Amino acid sequence: MDLKTLRLNAKERLAPFCRVCKECDGKLCAGEMPGMGGTGSGTSFMNNIVALAEQKLNLRTLHNAENPDLKFSLFDKNLTAPLMAAPITAIGMQTDNRLSDKEWADAVILGSQHAGTVAWTGDGPDPSHFQSGIDVLKKSGIQGIPVIKPRENKTILEYIEIAERAGALAVGIDIDAAGIINMKLKGQPVGPKNKEQLQEIIKGTSLPVILKGIMTIEEAILAVEVGAAGIVVSNHGGRVLDHTPGTAEVLPEIASEVCGRMLVFVDGGIRSGVDILKMLALGADAVLVGRPLVVGAAGGGPEGVAFLLHKLISELKIAMILTGCTSLEDISNEILR
Length: 337
Hints:
By secondary structure, the chain is an alpha/beta fold. The chain is about 40% helix and about 10% strand.
């Protein structure tokens, strides 16, 4: 498999819902939902790209960082790198079933396993969207991280039980989906969560609970207070609220506040190993990648997803060599200009 063929296959399959642009920056697909675009003007999606591009790296080659160690431990599970597949919901609905939810679940879960990492699976307006990921996890015996929409607490706890029976590594709640209108239109109400509601959820499971969609210091602190195992700094790929900052812009202040008290993940606009390195230098423990893996799944199934994950890991290793980082512990804001 090669990148050109994979992209051509994906472009043919996903048109017109994704153009498989050379630069996946949200400009041509702004406001296209269904599709891969950002909501409204598309500014939030584009801000993720811009915020990362504004970060510059210090090139360093007078050192001994010849073979960096990228291994990352997540809840006692060893991964090849601090890189995972982001949860993407209802991909069939977003692409008019050019890529079905089952195909996506198969590709992203099996592809992540082949690359030595794990996939986060999603939830959506139809209960089958959540179940499609669970079914693949159970059938394959692979551990993943199912992410649940901010439904009523009773329903969330029921979904967590399903995840527990599937052998999940952890569970997530994408709090930033609190205003998604198509959930309510399908009779699946979602909404914001207060401190007491979060505590009830976290106390209701032995699995680590990760809150996805944290964009402020105040909410990161609240996540620590309620006992969350981690947060994902995320604006939902720019698909829920227009005119939010890019995640790389808010990550440093959030990470500096909760560093050492919980895991900090981040997504949004990550397209290369250099982008991963930047996010780690800004304070993330690990990153999630979404839209590029849709291209991988559509263009090459599990093999396509694994191909792109391996490519990102290889790029990260080279970027670490060229900034003098022998291990993940060496990556700090000192490599940024």
